Amino acid sequence: MSIHSDAGAMSRSPAEKETRMTAGTWLAIAGLVLLAAVPIFAPSLQLLVNLALAKGLAVLGVTVLLRAGQVSFGHALYFAVAAYAGAFLLAAWPGADLFVVLLAGALGAAVSGLLVGLFVVRYRGIFFGMLNLAFSMIFWSILEKFYHVTGGADGIRLPRPSVLGMEMGRHDFELVLFWLTLALVGGLGWFTLRWLASPVGQLFRTVKTNETRLEYLGVSPRRALLSGYLLSAVLCGVGGAIMGVAQGVVTPEYAWWIRSGEMVFIAVLGGAGSVPGAFIGALIYEFVRVFASAFAGDVWQMLLGGFLLVIILFAPGGVVGLFERVTRRGAAKGEEAA
Amino acid sequence: MKTLFVTTALCATLPMTALAAEKPETLKIGMTTFLTGPASVFGVPAQEAAKIIVENINAEGGINGVPLEVSFIDEGAGAEALTSEYRRLVESEGVEVMFASISSGNCQTLAPLAEDLQVPNFMWDCGTQKIFEEQDYEYVFRTQANATPEMLAAVIYLLKTKPDFKTIAVVNQDYAWGRDSWNIFSTALKAMKPDVEVVGEFFPKFGAPDFSTEISRLQALRPDVILSTSWGGDLDTFVQQASQRGLTNSSTFVLPLAESSFERLGASLPAGHIVGARGDHYFLHPERREDADFKAFMEEYESRTGQVSVYPVFHTSQAFAALQAAYSKAIEENGVDWPSEEQLLAAMEGLEFQGLGRPVKIREDHQGVEDQMMGTTVQNGDYPFATMENIMIFDGDDITTPVGEESIEWVSGLDASFIDTVAVDSFEN
Amino acid sequence: MNLTIFLLALFDGIAYAALVFIVALGLTLIFGVMRILNVAHGSLYAIGAYATVALTGFFLSLGLAPALSFPLMLVAAILVGILLGGPIEWLLLRRIYDKPEVLQLLVTFAVFMILEDVQRLVWGTQPYFEARALQALGNVTVFGVTYTVYQLILLPAVALVLLLGLRFFLRRTILGKLITATTEDREAAQSIGIDADKVFLLTFIVGAALGGLGGALASPTTSILPGMGADMIVLSFAVVATAGLGQIEGAALTALMIGLGRSFAVYVWPEVAVLVPYLIMVLVLLVRPEGLFGSPAARKI
Amino acid sequence: MSAPLLETRNLMIRFGGVIAANDVSLKIEAGRNLAIIGPNGAGKTTFLNICTGWIKPKSGQVLFEGEDITPLPPRKIVRRGVARAFQIPQLFTEHTALENLLISAAAREGMRHPLRDLSRVPERAEMMHLLEMVNCADVAHRTVDELSEGQRKLIDIAVALALRPRLLLMDEPTSGVASSQKHKIMEILIRALAEARVTSVFVEHDMGIVGDYADEVAVWNAGNVQLRGTPTEILEHPDVIRDVIGEVA
């Protein structure tokens, strides 16, 4: 299953790329700074933004796979695995440290990602998507069924973890969590960009365009795909772990297929294959969703659906694509002027 | 006149303990309820009821002159939307009191949140008994009973009306309510009637569209009694398929939430099965049906929705009754024009109030004590659906877990003699 | 497990499989021809059920015989196909055939979200139940266990008719041949003058109608309520992928496996019943990566 | 006397009724350019596919430097030093010409510099040089699907050369190229091969090309080597004129 992804940065001349990248970096930094100020200027939006960014990390995972032309309809699996890993850890060891919880989540996602990945990287297109779906649904059923372990449909409550040994009130804790999330968004976002541009990342991306050549370069397409699959699982995991801690509860709904669909939805909304797009998309999505459900009562789903249709039909590049189109037009004008 | 004198007297004698709050323009209430998803069979009636009740209260000048204003949150929109919206109402919209929620899961998420946000939260419908047994809350109260008395009432009614059954099977929804309610029910049953054999336990997934296989098995097993605490579409489907295939003739069904499905099930719920309503909630409440206010509300509700009231409507009325009672009590006790938050919270302890059912009392552990009604279905042609006969209303105090005790432990400590210690009023219909 | 139990489980499994198959049939037909995995299929299923309830409710209230509900099911299905399937293909899918598969899939996902709310706006949130069709056929008793004729006999019969009918249609009739030709090679088909657009439109309408029919046939046995489509769609996904995409016979076999697996699970180990479809899917694909009946596509270099 | 670079022993395979390889035994010595000619369907491409492990023979062996590589998958054979260029260029269409080579180099070098930007790897200069060798330096930064068939052919070969193979198998390097271009391309190619000291086997239809650039020619027919010799011997051989050239002309 292949999809438009702007290999843009790669396909321009190095010089040009330099400028674009620095420009992009500045935009990114500006965005992060702006977000960092949310708790000060718009505290009521803090949690919402935090949840959106957590989801954004998960979407980033899906985005990575899109770069290899693969679409997973089951990545909610890693979102849920990590969240539950954190929950079980906190249940067994109340007041465990936030960092330990997130680490446990990421680890859980990595392990499950490896196990499932070894199997699914043999498949492409629809089958790849459907198999991921199947695995996430199996996990979902287990969470629902094995009530005495997983708390069934009502899930598990997460007592608030400590931070570096400090017990915190909800307000302080959420502030810390918010900025930590932001730091992770910046860090993991940067890492993902580097990775995609790196030799390994490039080999991974070629799974999309020509596996035959990849094989004839002496590289196993499956291993190339697995490397990115692992990264995507971990990203989803970190997002899920944060989500669980921020919500204070994890439910099987975390693994439900509609959530996986939602992630792909957001990835495309933001700009399929674009790293910043994952977070921009997540922010837009959460705002539309929350305010729709607040003010448009019971038609929020319809609004989101319509929104998605408009994007796909009129701006398949997603929000980022739109932005680039505009800036390019601007640049073109500039050249004419000169 | 008398109250006026009392208040002035109070003011004169003792100095004001807590400072009064400034009287607001409107008293803002937030209510979480299911507007989407399967549970909207409860959520939407509750929302309708809330609208009617608020109109009535405001028509009578609101609470001490302050009109009510309710905003609703859809519990079906998912946990993120729910928590962020809950906070938005409290932090930005200046909502004074929250009513949350229908889902036990959401109650468990929102209770600690309410505590942290320091907003009084009435748990107006969720069933889980665990909340107050596992943790103490300052801001969270429950304006209705919980799963324990609801299940105990069902067990006692079953033992009173069908003392000599031998086997039982359960078909419950596979989520906390289905599991916990069976846990309480079976524990109580083993305690009070040890010789009963459980021949089958089925937990089809929530929202299962088809119970054919379970029903085939039940027909093969032929239990005397079949329990299902399911509700909404699941209960409808199960009862429909069971009656289509004659299972309702061979076994007695115990359906503690069936009252909310009477109208939809129509003739498919035959006579002679045991039904309940999570409290004394019934649009033909034997003690209340003649009262003017009760009648007026029932007619109003039916004319607006085209349906008869179901228990979430009663639970809603109790939440608002508690709200009114608490404010007037706080105003009166402190002799103020409008109570501060502390004064309101203080007033909640031991508060007595009456919604559409019998009066309810809030215990010191913030658990509401509510009487429980059970009955047997009858198709007597008054309505195109089943109604209740041989109704019993059990005293809430006797069947609610004592303060500080854990339900399962307490229930497992009971025995057959317990049945006779429970105060009960019986009615023909 | 004695023979009686075995047979009972068998009956339940077949009845359930029949319904699943009918729904999955539409999905696999659409995929086989158009290479589009239609997420909105679940909504079409739900709307088919709602429409049937509405129609039967109306006509039977005029005092017509319950037997009339059977033709009404067909009407409902056809309405779904034409009034929903038609526009979806015509207005949306047609514009994105050149787009990547994921976008096509997301379009149907968006349609699914929209239709979910449409259902609620039109029919509200209260569950409906309209079983008169089922009651009209009465019951049969096997080993002291009562089954409804509707589930034990009618549903499997319909499923069988549809299976054979569709096979015949695709292999023996001109139109069917045109469709299969378009499936195999769109360009070639167009070059010999087949109007692929028409073929796609027709296919989607038929597929949507089959989804609607599934809902219509399910309506007498279950509560019709919001969200009923979401579960059905994942189940049919599992069937379609396990069968091998676009494999009609495969879908039948898979539906049977899933139906039986589930019912036997209820007898042996109820707790795992939910897991069965997905376990079957994973296990099958583990051994046959292209699905039971799928054929691997050779890479030409 | 050292083992031949590549040797096949009694390769057998048939697709359906067609015998694509019928007891093919062939030795290829290092340092020469062997051309394979023959009518369509004679099994030329199949031979390349077997040698690179893409399809497995029903019976028989492929030896590279004396070692049996028959059971290995293509990637393992490639790592031993057998590279391949394709009739239809197999490139990463979303990447630029240079990036295609850099990725090839990255595959060759493995995980040497995990997180360095591909455009900054030390192999960059080497790859630019390779592009110059195949006359594509000017399009280094164009995405390959913007390029002409001829350029893509050359880049496809350059990508194979970037692996520093000892043997390069090419499937019709000049097919789909304007005949005016063919000689130019082969000139470039042979020079590049010589410079990189790569032994090559290339399937070719154009007898002119074969005559000018091959050191040796093998004539394929009905899944086997019918004749083998120097270009002049072969091109004047009556059977060849009848079966092959006749068909091509």
TrEMBL record, chain C:
<keyword id="KW-0812">Transmembrane</keyword>
<feature type="transmembrane region" description="Helical">
    <location>
        <begin position="6"/>
        <end position="32"/>
    </location>
</feature>
<comment type="similarity">
    <text>Belongs to the binding-protein-dependent transport system permease family. LivHM subfamily.</text>
</comment>
<keyword id="KW-0472">Membrane</keyword>
<dbReference type="InterPro" id="IPR001851">
    <property type="entry name" value="ABC_transp_permease"/>
</dbReference>
<protein>
    <submittedName>
        <fullName>Branched-chain amino acid transport system permease protein</fullName>
    </submittedName>
</protein>
<keyword id="KW-0813">Transport</keyword>
<keyword id="KW-1003">Cell membrane</keyword>
<dbReference type="Pfam" id="PF02653">
    <property type="entry name" value="BPD_transp_2"/>
</dbReference>
<feature type="transmembrane region" description="Helical">
    <location>
        <begin position="199"/>
        <end position="218"/>
    </location>
</feature>
<keyword id="KW-1133">Transmembrane helix</keyword>
<keyword id="KW-0029">Amino-acid transport</keyword>
<feature type="transmembrane region" description="Helical">
    <location>
        <begin position="44"/>
        <end position="64"/>
    </location>
</feature>
<feature type="transmembrane region" description="Helical">
    <location>
        <begin position="105"/>
        <end position="123"/>
    </location>
</feature>
<feature type="transmembrane region" description="Helical">
    <location>
        <begin position="266"/>
        <end position="287"/>
    </location>
</feature>
<feature type="transmembrane region" description="Helical">
    <location>
        <begin position="70"/>
        <end position="93"/>
    </location>
</feature>
<dbReference type="InterPro" id="IPR052157">
    <property type="entry name" value="BCAA_transport_permease"/>
</dbReference>
<feature type="transmembrane region" description="Helical">
    <location>
        <begin position="149"/>
        <end position="170"/>
    </location>
</feature>
